[in-house]
């Protein structure tokens, strides 16, 4: 069930055709960047349909870019697809941005959605930073394919899922690809708590100030620790 705890400006109506903004380049959806376009062209190859195209892009983003929740600087540049291409890793939001931006290079309307999710198998290191039993503010792609909006999360790469014995999230370009509720051992894994809707451009100020400034005050320690590791 959708709730409006956070206010998204210019929210996409996922029951209606996409607005033109879902195809346009922006600072964060930098689908006009040559490196982004070149990568998309390489991945898409000889795909003949939008479904085939988006499936190829999904698996490329899921598996060629390592899920790394500690690669977490919250700088504006971290939320640009050209930077994600260089980093080759990221947490859920940069990876979702990359998939949606690549989709726009192929004429597939897209945006980014947000939800509060509970990871019941979260490592202790992340629990220490985010706080016990707190939902995670999660970003996912919204993609307009074959006349309908789909939600897809390319966050968890296959090698990580195999290592942790969790189910990789598959995507067929025809139905939603949202996190599994249980893992391979039938342990409770991902639980969706609240959906905040989707937008055509990344709301950086909202994410930085409203989400990580208010909901997760301890996240500053995680960022400081990460910056210290690379300094």
Can you tell me about this structure?
The protein has 231 residues and is of the alpha+beta class. It has a single domain, classed as Roll (C8orf32 fold). It has eight helices and six strands, in the order H-H-E-H-E-H-E-H-E-E-H-E-H-H. The chain has helices at residues 34-44, 50-64, 81-87, 92-105, 124-130, 158-164, 204-215, 219-230; strands spanning 66-67, 89-90, 110-119, 136-145, 148-152, 190-199. The strands form two sheets. The chain has a four-stranded antiparallel beta sheet. Strand 1, helix 3 (81-87) and strand 2 form a beta-alpha-beta unit. The longest helix has 15 residues, at 50-64. It is globular and about 40 Å long. The chain starts with 33 loop residues before the first helix and ends with a helix.
């Amino acid at each position: 069930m959708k709730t409006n705890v956070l206010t998204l400006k210019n929210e996409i109506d996922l029951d209606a055709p996409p607005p033109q903004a879902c195809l346009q380049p922006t600072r964060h959806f930098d689908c006009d960047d040559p490196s982004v376009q070149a990568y998309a062209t390489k991945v898409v190859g000889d795909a003949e349909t939008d479904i085939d195209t988006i499936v190829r892009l999904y698996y490329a983003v899921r598996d060629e870019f390592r899920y790394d929740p500690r690669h977490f600087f919250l700088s504006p540049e971290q939320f640009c697809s050209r930077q994600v291409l260089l980093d080759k890793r990221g947490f859920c939001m940069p990876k979702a941005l990359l998939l949606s931006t690549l989709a726009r290079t192929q004429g597939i309307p897209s945006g980014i959605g947000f939800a509060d999710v509970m990871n019941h198998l979260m490592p202790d290191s992340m629990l220490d930073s985010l706080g016990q039993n707190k939902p995670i503010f999660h970003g996912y792609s919204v993609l307009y394919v074959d006349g309908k909006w789909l939600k897809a999360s390319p966050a968890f790469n296959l090698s990580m899922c195999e290592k942790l014995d969790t189910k990789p999230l598959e995507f067929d370009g025809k139905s939603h690809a949202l996190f599994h509720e249980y893992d391979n051992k039938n342990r409770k894994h991902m639980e969706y708590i609240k959906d905040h809707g989707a937008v055509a451009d990344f709301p950086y100020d909202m994410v930085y100030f409203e989400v990580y400034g208010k909901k997760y005050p301890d996240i500053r320690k995680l960022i400081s620790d990460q910056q210290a590791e690379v300094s």
